[in-house]
């Protein structure tokens, strides 16, 4: 048995619409190891959903091939459908069903006996604190509630492989925590899990390895700790400014390190360790910068992600200049 559950071999995806073409994935090779949680990180439009659709056999790569358990994914679509639970970003195929029906129907498709399917569906709805919605149509419940039903359909029946595309989008903090716990629990019970998310800070707590994708290219793939070594000579400054004053502070701070998106009046800055003391002195001395609070932290997976992306962009710019 291959130790890879899924393996992508040099896959590319060229979307064509009239005269427009888009190379969504560019020569990606990767393997998903049995029993791991692999996180796929990348900004909007990076090519993550395209990669997942290729892996599960919904989209045939323009070139390259995808193996599931060592053989071509297309040659075994029924096996993939019964073993791989896929939670897509748009899980509304079941929207004409009632909440309970959607869960039971999915469990039955995975081979569960009717009574066991109903029991598990009820248990999941109870856990989600959504039992009172069991007789409601999916099209009549809120976006977050629909997502939870989608998560339920991914979890019900305990598939050996889970593929989750943005599972915690639109969820409130309590539900997000619940979903991350359930993902971890399924993994402890042996499931291999592929997880696409923008929520890097939360994903960091659960993933074993991370693949970073941007512009259709695989920029890095490694264990979280290994990736963090790339930025371990840096510190993260979290800075809050007076409302409406962020830009002034940001202009000054950008000379000190890599500025990341932080929010309306927040700045996140990745700074080389040897410059941190001088930066602190500057922050304390310069009251004109309207900095109200600051903290200094070790780098997170999110910092690694920004760093890898930035390095790749610098490389590409250099490539363009040379080429
Ligand atoms: N069916 C399609 N036809 C043409 N272009 C497409 C199609 N699907 C995706 N694309 C384009 O391919 C690129 C990759 O899209 P993809 O959906 O894989 O990105 P993503 O990383 O999942 O993004 P997001 O995080 O926003 O969901 C984007 O530029 C997108 O506009």
Automatic annotation (TrEMBL):
Family label: Belongs to the ABC transporter superfamily.
Keyword Transport assigned: yes
Species: Paenibacillus xanthanilyticus
UniProt feature coiled coil, ranges: none
The keyword Nucleotide-binding is assigned to this record: yes
Protein name: ABC transporter ATP-binding protein
GO MF annotation list: ATP binding
SUPFAM superfamilies named among the record's database cross-references: P-loop containing nucleoside triphosphate hydrolases
Organism phylogeny: Bacteria, Bacillati, Bacillota, Bacilli, Bacillales
Limits of the ABC transporter domain: 9-240
InterPro entries, per database record: AAA+_ATPase, ABC_transporter-like_ATP-bd, ABC_transporter-like_CS, ABC_transporter_ATP-binding, P-loop_NTPase
Pfam families: ABC_tran (PF00005)
Keywords: ATP-binding, Nucleotide-binding, Transport
């Amino acid at each position: 048995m291959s130790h890879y559950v899924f393996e992508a071999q040099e896959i590319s995806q060229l979307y064509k619409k009239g005269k427009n073409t888009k190379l969504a994935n560019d020569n990606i090779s990767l393997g998903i190891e049995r029993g791991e949680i692999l996180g796929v990180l990348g900004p909007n439009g990076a090519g993550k959903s395209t990669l997942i659709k290729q892996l599960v056999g919904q989209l045939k790569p323009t070139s390259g091939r995808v193996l599931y358990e060592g053989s071509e994914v297309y040659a075994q679509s029924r096996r993939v459908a019964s073993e791989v639970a896929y939670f897509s970003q748009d899980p509304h195929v079941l929207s004409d069903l009632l909440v309970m029906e959607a869960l039971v129907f999915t469990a039955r498709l995975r081979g569960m006996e009717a009574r066991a399917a109903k029991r598990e569906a009820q248990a999941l709805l109870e856990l989600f604190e959504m039992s009172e919605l069991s007789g409601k149509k999916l099209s009549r419940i809120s976006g977050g509630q629909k997502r939870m039903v989608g998560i339920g359909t991914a979890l019900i029946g305990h598939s050996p492989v889970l593929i989750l595309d943005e599972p915690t989008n639109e969820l409130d903090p309590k539900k997000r925590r619940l979903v991350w716990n359930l993902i971890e629990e399924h993994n402890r019970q042996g499931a291999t899990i592929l997880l696409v998310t923008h929520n890097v800070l939360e994903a960091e707590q659960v993933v074993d390895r991370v693949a970073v994708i941007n512009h259709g290219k695989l920029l890095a793939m490694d264990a979280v700790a290994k990736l963090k070594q790339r930025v371990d000579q840096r510190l993260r400054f979290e800075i809050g400014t007076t409302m409406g004053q962020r830009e002034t502070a940001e202009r000054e701070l950008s000379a000190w390190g890599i500025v990341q998106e932080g929010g309306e009046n927040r700045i996140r800055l990745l700074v080389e360790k040897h410059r941190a003391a001088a930066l602190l002195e500057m922050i304390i001395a310069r009251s004109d910068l309207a900095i109200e609070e600051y903290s200094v932290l070790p780098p997170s997976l999110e910092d690694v992600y920004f760093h890898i992306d930035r390095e790749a962009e610098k490389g590409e710019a250099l490539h363009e200049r040379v080429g």
